[in-house]
Amino acid sequence: MRALYIGRFQPYHLGHQAVIEKIAEEVEEIVIVIGSAQDSHTPENPFTGGERMEMIYASLRECSLCHRCYVAPLQDVQRNSVWVSHLRSMVPRFDVAYSNNPLVVQLISEAGIAVRKPPMYQREVYSGTAIRRLMREGGDWERLVPRAVAEIIREMGGVERLVSVSKSDMP
Ligand code: ATP
Ligand code: MG
């Protein structure tokens, strides 16, 4: 059995990692889809599709799940009614989707695909929004992401980028 797990992964954090480890207990293979792959350099989507792919592969290597996962980037289409066809045309085939995102659950269920809701892992702490806030405010974000992700973000000047693209040119 092959599962789908989709997110924007801005950045990939320990909540995502916990979900993937849980899914890996239930199915043989996982297709991890990087949504809004075209977006980068904005306060909500600071990292490119490629940078997010690096983060995910580096983390999977650390927990030895690499050989059971595909990682596929997916651009947005501005039409939710055709999104599932778009998704299926771009990623490896899958039998079941794991998601708690209400829109993703709705669209995938309407297409007749089974959806499972993974448990939430300390959602207030392990959240992309909370992590980006900590990054902007100089807080301790590194403990909320896999070690390999912290290293990649440090290396590429990710925090400086996020701070920079969050500024305004208004006084
Ligand atoms: P953002 O705040 O930027 O939306 P996020 O933490 O929700 O970031 P996404 O990439 O949007 O991260 O999430 C992908 C999927 O992972 C979604 O289905 C989301 O519900 C789920 N998810 C995120 N954090 C957790 C967590 N701590 N435990 C379980 N699932 C999570
Ligand atoms: Mg989210």
- The CATH architecture is 3-Layer(aba) Sandwich
Mean pLDDT: 96
Strand content: 5-15%
What are the segments in which pLDDT stays under 50 over at least 5 consecutive residues? none
| Largest sheet geometry | 5 strands, parallel
Structure description:
- With 171 residues, this protein is of the alpha/beta class.
- The chain has one domain (2-165): Rossmann fold (3-Layer(aba) Sandwich), CATH 3.40.50.
- The chain has helices spanning 14-26, 49-62, 83-90, 102-110, 128-137, 147-155, 158-165; strands at residues 2-7, 29-34, 69-73, 96-98, 114-116.
- A 5-stranded parallel β-sheet has the order 3-2-1-4-5, sandwiched between helices.
- β4 (96-98), α4 (102-110) and β5 (114-116) form a beta-alpha-beta unit.
- The N and C termini lie far apart (55 Å).
- The mean pLDDT is 96.
- The chain binds adenosine-5'-triphosphate and magnesium ion.
- Adenosine-5'-triphosphate binds at residues 7-10, 15-16, 19, 99-101, 118, 120-123, 126-129.
Task: Quickly describe the structure.
The chain has 171 residues and is α/β, with parallel strands linked by helices. It is built from seven helices and five strands, in the order βαβαβαβαβααα.
Write the layout of secondary structure elements.
Layout lengths: L1 E6 L6 H13 L2 E6 L14 H14 L6 E5 L9 H8 L5 E3 L3 H9 L3 E3 L11 H10 L9 H9 L2 H8 L6
Helix pairs in contact: 2-6
This protein binds adenosine-5'-triphosphate (ATP) and magnesium ion.
The site of adenosine-5'-triphosphate (ATP) has 19 residues, from helix 1 and helix 5.
